[in-house]
Amino acid sequence: MWREHWLELSAAVSDVAARFEDASGVTHPTALIARVHLFATINDEPIVWACVPAHWPRELRPAALPSQPTMSRRVRAPAFDAFMDALGRRLAGRVPPALFKRLDGKAIPVKAHSKDPDARWGRGAGQMVKGYKLHAVWGDGAMPEAFEVAPLNVSEQAAAARLLPRLAGEGYLLADRLFDDSELFDAAHENGHRLITPRPKPGTGLGHTYQSPHRVACIDLLEPGVCRPCRFGRSLVEARDQIERDFANLVSFGGGMIDPPAWVRREGRVSRWVHAKLLINAARIRVNRRRKQTDAA
Known about the structure:
Elements: H1 2-17, H2 30-42, H3 47-50, H4 68-74, H5 78-92, E1 100-110, E2 120-123, E3 128-138, E4 146-151, H6 156-163, E5 171-174, H7 182-190, E6 193-196, H8 213-222, H9 231-239, H10 242-250, H11 267-296
Parallel strand pairs: 1-5, 5-6
Antiparallel strand pairs: 1-3, 2-3, 3-4
Helix pairs in contact: 1-2, 1-5, 1-11, 2-5, 2-11, 5-11
């Protein structure tokens, strides 16, 4: 199955490479650097493993492979990030910005005894864990519309505030009660979106601190009467659950985003590894959607 996903991913790399301009004088094009990085990630192996020709199937192996020191240097260059971002747009397809977007975070734990100086303790799935968190806004495409990786002690509200300016279009931003914050409601409005999130204690008063008018409007939508949300408000709260399935599907296939292996440490490496896993997942989504269309025909 991984081969089918790889062929979809490899075709996207070639398509982006045809329009990507590298700096003059580079021995290995950025497309090759991305291809080697993705091949290592889809096989859950370190990059040095993918630099060995014998580890590639003959029909998939590039004509020449960079060395591990070259890979280490090139993946930290701005050109690599630009190429990976372009690859994400290619895999997302020509999908207009979603009217209903979903916001949440997913913990990326490392071992508690890890010496990673960037990993931090924070709230994971029902317990305290050490590591990082993927913060994402997901729409209808195969890729999140915006995402970032941060240490686990970074609050979800702070991460969401950084993601908001990166969202295109307008619409509803559906989130859980952790995002019930007046400043975040205001920031969402300033960026063309209406934040919809239930309160931790519905039916209670508003208190004496500043209340965003957009938060008050959300409460009126979700809590008309005595905690009886209207049908539209209830449908918005239920629609947010899709991001739980998005995150679950991200880890539920061979080559998916399991806990990062021992060689993926420090924030930069973890961010690149997560980005690669999101691209691999996008390739899987595209393959599955195309298969469903073929079966329906």
